[in-house]
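Here we describe the complex-level prediction in full. Unlike the single-chain runs in Section 2.1, the two entities below were treated as one system.
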Amino acid sequence: MQYQSQAVAKPYFIAAIGLFVGQILFGLIMGLQYVMGDFLFPAIPFNVARMVHTNLLIVWLLFGFMGAAYYIIPEETESELFSPKLALLMFWIFLVAGALTVVGYLLVPYAALAKMTFNDLWPTMGREFLEQPLPTKLGIVVVALAFLFNITMTILKGRKTSISLVLLMGLWGLAVFFLFSFYNPSNLVLDKYFWWWTVHLWVEGVWELILGALLAFVLIKVTGVDREIIEKWLYMIIAMTLITGIVGMGHHYFWIGTPEYWQWFGSVFSALEPIPFFMMTVFAFNMVNRRRREHPNKAATLWALGTGVMSFLGAGVWGFLHTLAPVNFYTHGTQITAAHGHMAFYGAYVMVVLTIISYAMPVMRGRAANSNKSQVLEMWSFWLMTVSIVFITLFLTAAGILQVWLQRVSTTPLGFMAAQDQITLFYWMREFTGLVFLTGLVLYIISFFVGGESKEAA
Amino acid sequence: MSTQSLTLDKHQPGTPPGDMAIWLFIYAELLAFGVFFLSYAFARAHNVELFNESQQHLNRESGAINTVVLITSSYFVVRAVAAIREGLSRQCAHWLSAAIGLGGVFLVIKLFEFHAKFSAGISLSTNTFYMFYLSLTIFHFMHVILGMVILAAVMLKARRGGYTAEHHTGVETGASYWHMVDLLWIILFPLVYVIR
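The structure predicted for the assembly as a whole is:
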């Protein structure tokens, strides 16, 4: 580790992995509830499990991004963090707020939680992904502002590189778009219109900048390719991301009461959204092929390549599958969406956070790379998790196609629940594959505790 | 003079002029517009009468004048590249200024056209034809502005003597982008204003 203050990334990464486990457990609970409706009822109803599953995902990815930024920025700017103490303080505030929120979801009925947390004063709750009580939302803003202040000040006093500037742009965008979670107009169309700006302008816009920056950083480290070449790629990728993603987000506006032109804008621009993801794949492989050194951390390289491939498949291909308005007319809100959501989140954002953790954790623990034994185990976990997410996606896609047919296309359409009854086989297979995923995740965690001879830090 | 062809910065035969990155950008832009043009054709095929009727109300004269304006500006850009290949920085900057000026003329004419349409109460929601007409032309309008910004940056550098007969990738890069903006209009104008 070149700079002492990079060490603040460690608790962030550990918390991220811990919450990741929680996310998967709740995913499994929910997966079972798909086929055994009263499983754990009334202790954990489906809607609560779903809320915890999605909220934990977003929160652990945020922990991952923050940890990544705290690790990368000192090295890129060639200066210590502006305030490591502030970073640690924010870590605890964020963790406690997050934990209290989840406890609130689980122990108190949602309506009572809303009442307890002053939702009457400023109603923001009750919307998908934005379920957090007002105090939590305000806490997130405080944490995000302190984090951005810390990172921005560090960049201002140090060397300015393209990677750190792109990362900073992505992180600021993340914070700005979160503010729309406080806006809750009574007009349902407007409400939905701006609702999409929080999570979805993240994943189709500013988070892609973060993704590109993290990937570029790790690729520079593990391949030794000239920074100039990597930065040029990064610029082209973010240009394409912004050209396609911002207007492409219009594919969410097809059926919510917005003007009809969104069907054209959304279709045309989002059809191009796979391009930046494809460029990311080509970028990762190209750089690894042109590598000028053999970095001992093979696992990190594998994660980086995996991010390139899986983000293109999950976000690019599976997104394109149902993005054109005439197709989406039939598929919206079905298991096709769930299939896309799973592989896109895993392939793009889960994998890039695991990439940076895989690269940075050994360095923070005083070695260039983990022992061979540990890396082999980590690679096993890579394949188990990646292959099982591919199968989860395939099963959900099959379930989705069947669902669309039974419920929306056939001459004698079934009701929602009747159609669900017909596709339980796929839900069972998805649940089984989810257990394989959990096995991969457990192996991943064990790999941190496997000793053996490791390379000293360079 | 023969050594010049060996310098890296000089345009190599067989490769596109300018920076490689601008070409990826150009291809991406052409793809975006291409998909839009195809969507236009697709939508028109389903509603030929509406498209033909609405098209009658477009101002073809101003569209035609703008075509001449943009093609002329592209010619000026060609002269700018020719000038810098001879090492004539000042002339290069002058030609670029003229091209930027014509870009401005294009924008002004276009603004009059938009003003007339918006005053008549036409919007993106009027009908599918106007949706395409407005989005395509506004989208292109923004590209003209971007092209002018790029040319202005190149022009300022040329004026400072930042390019030489050997090293002038930047001029070729800006010129390539401007020709794309021109090319898009050359397709857009007949497609949306004329063909029926």
